[in-house]
Specification:
By secondary structure, the chain is α+β, with helices and mostly antiparallel strands. The chain has two domains: 10-29 and 38-157, 60s Ribosomal Protein L30, Chain: A (2-Layer Sandwich), CATH 3.30.1330.10; 173-336, Phosphoribosyl-aminoimidazole Synthetase, Chain A, domain 2 (Alpha-Beta Complex). The protein has helices spanning 25-35, 78-95, 115-132, 182-187, 191-201, 206-214, 229-238, 256-263, 271-278, 312-317, and strands at residues 43-45, 54-57, 63-71, 99-109, 135-143, 148-157, 173-176, 219-224, 243-248, 282-283, 303-307, 321-328, 332-336. The chain has a seven-stranded mixed β-sheet with strand order 8-11-7-12-9-13-10, with helices on both faces. It has a six-stranded mixed β-sheet with strand order 1-2-3-6-4-5.
Length: 338
């Protein structure tokens, strides 16, 4: 008898990868509540009003942004894993309107991960940081059962130019900087689907941040789309406001290969979790397969912004896609099929 030995890839070392591994929103809320109690003067954004990152006051012209993000392997290639993970961490700074300055690596490597892959992972993060103008200044490494990798990032923003998740205005346009669907692409574990997802996950959100910064006064609310899917992050944007979102997803807002996967029944492990958490905020669901796109977890997904309508043309010229309109309402997402 001859045994064929098959080399394990990074994704074989974990049960759930990327932002799909994110804890559900109920647990995140519980843990956040458990950590409350030590607020100090100078904390502009902390646990009481959670956002994509925390912000601390430094002086009249500068505030410090701080965030942390890490996850299990999302792709088989170690360099791409490090690159994507780093961009995902940096994205929280960009979603706040900030400039990334420095990062600390979070390296959780199992004993069955090769040293070559560990080095490649860190090299990917180094190059992603260099592309974004940030410097890796340290980190911490531990042995774990399943690989995790990411960064803690610090950045700067003017205190008058901080973007929040909430703050949408009546008549705003909802725009996103990347199409949706990386979750279902990764769920198949097929090489060609993974390559299609990587194409979008390796796109930095820095150019999207720069485009929004150009129209600073017209930007009213911003977040990035990750593990909770579009529906979950829209629900967060609605959490403090009496608005409704008229959601319409044109073909270009969805990765074509991802749509094919959805129509064939492919779903991620986070699909049910996201539906359980956020479906009650969505009006118009019929059970059609196409609805899976709004619950699909994204890894380093695009920036999602509520902006003044007159800036649509400029933002579309810079890669954004219009996917909805904001109006006074019952704090709900109105999903329009087609």
């Amino acid at each position: 008898m001859t045994l064929e030995l098959v080399a394990l890839g990074l994704r074989d070392l974990t049960t759930c990868g990327g932002c799909a591994a994110k804890a559900d929103s109920a647990l995140v809320h519980l843990l956040r509540q458990s950590a409350l109690g030590s607020t100090q003067a100078g904390t502009l954004i902390g646990l009481e009003t959670p956002d994509d990152a925390s912000v601390l006051e430094i002086n009249e012209t500068t505030s410090l942004i701080s965030t942390v993000d890490f996850f299990p392997p999302v792709v088989q290639d170690a360099y791409s894993y490090g690159f994507i993970s780093a961009l995902n961490s940096l994205s929280d700074v960009f979603a706040m309107g900030g400039t990334a300055r420095a990062a600390l690596l979070i390296c959780g490597f199992p004993s069955d991960m090769s040293e070559e892959d560990m080095v490649a992972c860190v090299a990917g993060a180094r190059d992603a940081c260099a592309q974004s103008g940030a410097e890796i200044i340290g980190g911490h490494t531990v042995r774990v059962a399943e690989a995790v990798f990411g960064m803690s990032v610090i950045g700067y923003v003017h205190p008058d130019q901080i973007w929040r998740k909430t703050g949408m205005r009546d008549g705003d346009l909802l725009m996103i900087s990347k199409p949706l669907g990386t979750g279902v692409l990764l769920a198949t574990k097929r090489h060609h689907d993974e390559l299609a997802a990587v194409e979008f996950m390796k796109l930095s959100n820095l150019p999207a941040r720069d485009a929004l910064a150009t129209i600073q006064e017209g930007v009213h609310a911003v977040t990035d789309v990750t593990g909770f899917g579009l529906a979950g992050h829209l629900a967060e944007m609605l959490s403090a406001d009496e608005f409704s979102i008229d959601l319409r997803l044109p073909a270009k807002s969805k990765i074509a290969r991802a749509v094919e996967n959805i129509e064939s029944g492919v779903r991620t492990s986070a699909d049910i979790r996201n539906r359980d958490a956020f479906a009650d905020r969505v009006v118009g669901l019929t059970g059609a397969s196409e609805e899976a796109i709004i619950f699909d977890p994204q890894t380093n997904g695009g920036l999602l912004a509520s902006v003044a309508k007159q800036h649509q043309g400029f933002l579309e010229a810079n890669g954004f896609i219009a996917i909805g309109e904001i109006s006074k309402g019952k704090s709900q997402i109105i999903y329009n099929h087609g």
